[in-house]
Each structure stands twice: as C-alpha cells, then as structure tokens.
Design a protein that fits this description.
2 copies of one chain form a homodimer.
Chain A: E1 2-3, E2 6-10, H1 16-29, H2 37-48, E3 53-58, E4 64-71, E5 79-88, H3 97-108, E6 114-122, H4 126-134, E7 148-154
Parallel strand pairs in A: 5-6
Antiparallel strand pairs in A: 1-2, 2-3, 3-4, 4-5
C-alpha cells in the first residue's frame, strides 16, 4: 500500500513489540499513564491476531501508528471502526503521514467491511478537528445537527 | 436481577423481535432513519448470540431497552463497553428505569470483565449529561481535563 510518499502497511503480530514501544512513548510524551511496553506488547500480540483490532504502520523502523478496533452495531450491516490512537513520532510530524493513514483507512473501509469510522477528538484541539474534517469526518449528527460529548466510567481506577 | 422496582433482565436471542420494535420506535420518535423492525430483528438475533453485544430489558412486555456493544482496547486487560442505545417508551419515562439499567451495568461491569463503559451524549442535552454524571460518568479526561467530541464518517450514505 502506498499513500503519498509514505509506505503505509497493516501491522502483523510480530510488529507487537515495536507498536508497544510507540504507544508507550505516546503516553509518556502526553503524560498519560502506561502499563509499560512489555504488557502492551503482550496485549497487542493477542489483539493483532484477532479480527477485532488492526494497526497501520509507516516507516521502517515505524515512525507512526494508527490503532483501530472494530465492533458490531445494530444500525449497520458492516462493522464500526474506532480510531483509538493516531501517533506520529515528534521528528516526523507535519509531513503527511497522518493523512496517509486516513487516506488508507477511508480508502480501505469498504474492503474491510467497515460502514462507520468513529474518532473522539479533544474539544479544544482545533487542529485535530480540522484534520479529521478534511478527511470527511463530521461531529454534527445529520438530522438534529447535535454534536456529542464522549462520556466514560473507568472501572480500573478507584472512584473519585 | 432486580434494580429498584424494575426487574432488569439480560435479553436472549428470542427477544430480538421485541427489541427490534423498540429500536424502530425509538428512531421513529426521534425522526432518525431506521432499516425497519424486520432487518433489525435479523441483526439482533445474530448479535445477541455473539459475545460482542448484549441488551438489558425491563418489563414484560419490554418498556425499556439498553443496548451495549463490546470491544478490546490495548490500554485495558478487560473489555470496553459502549452504551449504544438507552430507550424508555414514552409512558414510562421518569420512573427510574434508566437508573435501574445504569445500576445494573455499573454493578455487573466486573462480572462482565468490563474495564470501561463509554457513552456519547448530545452536547445540548444537559439532563442526559447530569443523568450519566449521577452514575459516575465523566467527560473530562483525568490528566488534561479535556473533553472530547465524537467525530464520525458514515460510508453507507453518499458524501455531502
């Protein structure tokens, strides 16, 4: 697969260690907790072998990662994909690799039997919102024009 | 399972027709497209037989429905649940059945191996936001305090 000047490929199980390090670096950079590269690698090895997760990589060694999970939804015949993570290492930002990933995701949606792609984008991150809008994503529901906030409850941390 | 005065039960495959009608009525009430009860029932029969979807029902005949899909996520050992739909028929609103569902979901999360429950809530629906907040849900990310908007691209409808 070639998107722009970046060779975008679908990760295999044996990319798990490299992806784990990227994800760990991602969270470290943004001061978010990480269970560490070893636990992430174990999980990724299992997840990438299932049909519920796939990852895109760019560069060898990989300098960018898109991580996608899939699920069913009663309103669609096909699958619903959530872009869980999109990470480009600091030295390679603003070089089009994010767009190469999005072009690949959007272009391959039909082949992957994906009817909907979802992304949660920070309210204050206007750059990211414009980026996804450029790739055909919207936040306003078609009928009501309402936007939605992402709410969550994490059961792995004690309640406040 | 008993939550408050409402008998909340986990739906079985053979509840598919009844759930399909509730979902169709839901979308009809809110002027959202629906593929119709028959297609929804076929999908639900398959989905409720998989380990990626479950539904909670209240009342016989059912007067309320919560529909949940599950997926993996690299940051969690357990599963991530998305509350796709929460619907109470018009004559039974404000009677605590929504809270009975949420108590059941939150209380059973550990038993279902669920580490995170996610819900997308309309930006302008302060009542719904308060409802989920009462049940321990937050929209602000713990470290950055950023909220996130839900973005999506639907591949079943032609691009604008």
């Amino acid at each position: 697969m070639l998107s722009g000047t970046w060779d975008v490929r679908i990760a295999k199980n044996n990319d798990a260690v490299e992806i784990a390090q990227l994800l760990h670096d991602f969270n470290t950079e943004f001061e978010t907790p990480s269970p560490g590269p070893r636990i992430l690698a174990d999980r990724l090895f299992a997840l990438l072998g299932s049909d519920g997760t796939f990852a895109l990589l760019a560069g060898r060694p990989a300098i960018a990662l898109a991580l996608v999970t899939l699920r069913s939804n009663v309103w669609y015949d096909g699958r619903v994909a959530l872009l869980d993570e999109l990470y480009v290492v600091p030295g390679h930002r603003n070089q089009g690799v994010g767009s190469a990933f999005m072009n690949e995701l959007v272009g391959s949606a039909k082949a992957f039997n994906i009817d909907l792609i979802e992304i949660n984008v920070d309210e204050g991150d206007a750059d990211a919102q414009r980026f996804y809008a450029r790739h055909g994503f919207v936040s306003a529901e078609p009928v009501t024009q309402a936007r939605a906030f992402y709410f969550f409850r994490d059961f792995t941390t004690p309640p406040e």
